[in-house]
Amino acid sequence: MELFGKNEAFSATAHTSIADEKGRVGHHMFMKYALLDGNFRTEMDMADSKNKKMSAEEAEQMKAMGMDKIIMLHRSADNKTYMVYPGMKAYCEVTQRQTEVKKKHTVTKVDKTEVGKDTIDGHACVRNKVVMTYEDGGTREMMVWSAKDLKDFPIKTEMPHNKGTIITAFRDIDQSRPDSSLFSLPSDYTAYGSMQEMMMANMQKMMGGMMPPGGMPRGPRPGADE
């Protein structure tokens, strides 16, 4: 949110990849972004992602559990963040239970230093070194390419990650106001108090689907011919 600056409303698609120290990409994903009046939405589909640590079987299992599509909503009205799972028709509030965790994610200062100029996808950009300082005193450094003709939209970012780099490139940038309904919680979805509660309910629902009305496991009936 700190990086989008003067962009108070937009929608875009982001391609994020993680490269190791030799530039080899082992993980990438596409995410849809939307911002409107302080409300923020991201949407990810695991079918559009590649993770060398996740097997095809694990990906299929996530899809069967209804966890392949994930929407994160931050709503400015109540200053709360929600995780929404369309496959489960459920959502829950994301809570920061530990003060230390909250401090690690609360930005108190952003410093920008211009280090060059580049052209990305036809957009003249200013390349800035950005250092964000958090409430707990920790810092995070990244390189940001801001497109001049898009109200300094951060069209590309690079951030150190372990020994590699996280690279995010935005495409299909639309700076008109997104539909406000994108930031509403679905009225026909079930609300849960926590992620653990939601996952437990989903597991029970899945197990229930494997049981016949009488409660006996599905399989050959006693005495039935093989």
What does it look like?
This protein is mainly β and 226 residues long. The chain has a domain at 9-106 and 161-208: outer membrane lipoprotein receptor (LolB), chain A (Clam). The chain contains three helices and 13 strands, in the order E-E-E-E-H-E-E-E-H-E-E-E-E-E-E-H. Strands 1, 2, 3, 4, 5, 6, 7, 8, 9, 10, 11, 12 and 13 form a 13-stranded mixed β-sheet that branches. Strand 11 (153-161) and strand 12 (164-174) form a beta hairpin. The longest helix is centred in the last third of the chain and has 14 residues, at 195-208. The chain is globular, with a radius of gyration of 22 Å.
Topology, please?
Blueprint: E1 9-19, E2 25-36, E3 39-45, E4 50-51, H1 56-64, E5 69-75, E6 80-85, E7 90-94, H2 99-105, E8 107-120, E9 123-134, E10 139-147, E11 153-161, E12 164-174, E13 190-192, H3 195-208
Parallel strand pairs: 7-13
Antiparallel strand pairs: 1-2, 1-12, 2-3, 2-4, 3-5, 5-6, 6-7, 8-9, 9-10, 10-11, 11-12
